[in-house]
Amino acid sequence: MKKTLERIVPKLYGKWLNFIAFFSPRTAAKIGFDIFCTIRKGRVKPEQVSFLDAAKHSVELIGEQQIQTYTWRGTKETVLLLHGWESNTYRWRNLIAKLKEHNFNIIAFDAPAHGHSTGKMLHVPLYAASTRYILDKFNPDYVVAHSMGGMTILFDHFLNPKDHVKKIVTIGSPCDFESFMHHYQAILKFNDKVWKAMDQRLKRVFGFHINEFKSSLFVANNKVPGLLFHDVEDKQVLHTESIKVHESWKNSRLVLTTGLGHSMHQEEVNEEIITFLESN
Q1: Are residues 234 and 114 in the same domain?
Q2: How many angstroms from the chain centroid is the CA of residue 74?
Q3: Are 156 and 254 in the same domain?
Q4: Which of 8, 53, 86, 227 is most buried by its number of CB atoms within 10 A?
């Protein structure tokens, strides 16, 4: 029954959007984008509480959201960690242990609508606004970001090319927003009128058409050293996404793995991150 509902409900949303678009494309676009951005997972689970509570630092009011920050003190450079879609800071537990071994100072936060932070929706520009606030307040030297977090830091650096960040690491991160929107359309089965209206809304609100919002564009003039990880068997974000970013990011190195999946919590990944951060 649950699986049947999971198949039917999205298509009902699509039919609803098609109906609304017949009368008001702008209204359909707003509703459609809000559905796309609504977070359904990523809150703190019982087994994650003690780890996160021990590192709680401050709650920052950023726009309309209360953003929970965390810190693990060290005497070396400061590393900012950005998690991905429907996740939270707990996903970094293995890397945090490794960074602590090497005495890095660590900062992290839960994105809007994730972990202990407030909110119901998330998209890259919203995540980037929180990231910019944290970057300005805590002045990290390095950023390590997973999945959507990777697109977020590259978008932020595109907007703020003179930022102080010295190195960026992305893990399993997407390149083209358009591919996610096509997947969204395929699930809901909304028509091209709704697509066009959402495209116009993105251009009006964020300054980009759907096919223009891509990390390969964001890094075209990025001079910060970058390290990109992606697993060729990643089923959530194709590894070709990181290849496209790497080809546009002149000062980057791409590491492709096999069998590590999307999360890439493994020791070999964390060790290579440490080596990159400690290199001259």
Answers
A1: yes
A2: 25
A3: yes
A4: 227
Alpha-carbon distance of 244 to 57, in angstroms, equals 37
Both structure tokens of 142 = 């390095």
- Complete DSSP assignment for 38-86: B--S-BPPGGGHHHHHTTEEEEEEETTEEEEEEEE--SS-EEEEE--TT
pLDDT of residue 207: 96
Q: Specify whether the CB–CB gap between 70 and 52 falls below 8 A.
A: yes
Range of the domain at 17: 1-37+177-213
What DSSP designation does 115 have?
B
* Whole-number CA gyration radius for the chain: 19
How do residues 225-253 score in pLDDT, each as one tens digit?
A: 999 999 999 999 999 999 999 999 999 99
Token readout for 85 is 């879609």
Q: What is the DSSP string of 83-103?
A: --TT--GGGGHHHHHHHHHTT
Tokens of 179: 């591919």
Residue type present at position 9: V
How many Å apart are CA 59 and CA 67, to the nearest integer? Answer: 5
Q: Which helix (H) or strand (E) holds 195?
A: helix 192-206
97-119 confidence digits (pLDDT tens): 999 999 999 999 999 999 999 99
In a shared domain, residues 182 and 161: no
DSSP 213: -
Residues 6+ apart with CB under 8 A from 208: 202
Q: What is the pLDDT of residues 261-274, one digit of tens each?
A: 999 999 999 999 99
Say if residue 60 is in the same domain as residue 85: yes
Q: What is the pTM of this model?
A: 0.95
Answer yes or no: do 201 and 249 share one domain: no
What residue spans of the chain are helical by DSSP H? 2-23, 25-37, 49-53, 93-101, 124-138, 148-159, 177-188, 192-206, 215-218, 239-248, 267-278
Regarding whether 87 and 118 lie in a shared domain, the answer is: yes
